[in-house]
Fold this sequence. Notes:
The protein is an alpha/beta fold. It is 41% helix and 18% strand. It has ten helices and eight strands. The strands form two sheets. It has a five-stranded mixed β-sheet, with helices on both faces. β2, α1 and β3 form a beta-alpha-beta unit. α2 packs parallel to α3. The longest helix has 14 residues. The two termini are 31 Å apart.
Amino acid sequence: MTEQGLDLSGSNTDLGTERVLILACGALAREILALIRGNNWHHLDLHCLPAILHNHPDRITDAVKDAVAQRRDQYTRIFVAYADCGTGGQLKSACDDMGVEMIKGPHCYSFYEGNDAFAAQGEVTCFYLTDFLARQFDAFVWKPLGLDRHPQLLDMYFGNYTTLVYQSQIDDPALVELARGHADRMGLAFEHRKTGYGDLAIALQEQAEKP
């Protein structure tokens, strides 16, 4: 899922209902699959783009456009499970042009917390981790920033941060301790918030129940 993405778009066997494709960031694959399976949304298929696009937001819009073009004839509806994710509004404009919906919010940290609640807090000195990023911290944060080779850069990157906020989607004490360790490495205070799936669950339920 990190480099290659995930394609379960051919897994739908419920031919009696309209088919809906969830086109998502690979960093959300585990959570979306849990929601689909837990709610028996058999008419929802999932296709994930590589999660590493998280580190290259300038590539997200074109990747989504290509994926929609390749699959739209196979589905009644496509829902884009990407927030803005650093595209500066370009992804929203592209989705509007293509006539497909996308999840609301500036990034996954916001919709996991709940967009309204996240905006109300106005936090500017917090660094956020999800379950995915707690697991993939080295691959997505430490190594891309060169901190494995140049640890002296840590203060340059994170000197203005005060707290690492771990937003957990599932209850896993091992992940909490893993995230706490990342906070220690960064020299940040640690806060754990049990957000669950937040607005992601609401958005997928709306897609599943649409007539």
